[in-house]
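User: structure tokens for this one?
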Amino acid sequence: MRAEIIFNPTAGRGRAAAIASTVQKSLAKRGLDTQLHVTEKSGDATTLACAFAGNADIVVAVGGDGTVNEIANGLACSPTSLGIVPAGTVNVLALELGLPFQVERACNVIAEGRTIAMDLGKANGRRFVLMTGIGVDALTVRNVDPRAKRMFRELAFLSTGLRLGFTTHPTPFLVRANGEEHTAIFAVIGNSRYYAGRLGMTSSADPTDGVLDLIMFTGRSRAALASFWLGVPSGLHMRHPETVYVLTEKAEITPIEKEDVVWFQTDGELAGRIPVTVEVEPHALNVLVP
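Assistant:
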């Protein structure tokens, strides 16, 4: 078995290189032929994964959700499996899949070879593993303090979302899905239950069911938006009277006025401005799980 290990040297506050070295030794002891590959800039992990897709048995991601996202974009629709050793700030996909955070246990999962065929989402052609978010959601990603994200994790997203709810006037946009149209100021299209850490935004999402979970907030007032965000940790946001939740294979998000500026993000990284078309790519990625 051949396993290529890709690591982001800045992940885990600079500990990813040491973790990757431990992973290489641990997998070698388990009989895998391994090689380390370091990324230097955004996109490197995708380029490396593309080269290994179909040629290696396993590509191991040592890093956070950003590294996993890049590798998933390179491995999608290939027979090569993705192994994950969490080494980032939040590691949402690891939480979703129940992956161990201890290096040796993560290597056991990789060596044992049990896989699931996981769905991926596509936002204007760019694949995502966890979610894409539009409106206040993307503004939250754009404005969250990296230091607070490292220290407080999901609480950093919650506090930023609340602050924006009280201080901004979000621009509404149109969402078309399943033959219906909605006006929203916030939307998340999830492939995973979790949004940031253990915050369950699309709390019914299943990354293997062949559909995406779309949650929209259709209210306009600051107080209503703040109450939505306050309900997220307990799941009460799902019961908010101005929340709409549907399952869909495709959603089209467009501005109401051509000059409106509304941002969207994928897997926690700002991705651009709408319009955006979001689709599911069923069972597109083989992931090693416990």
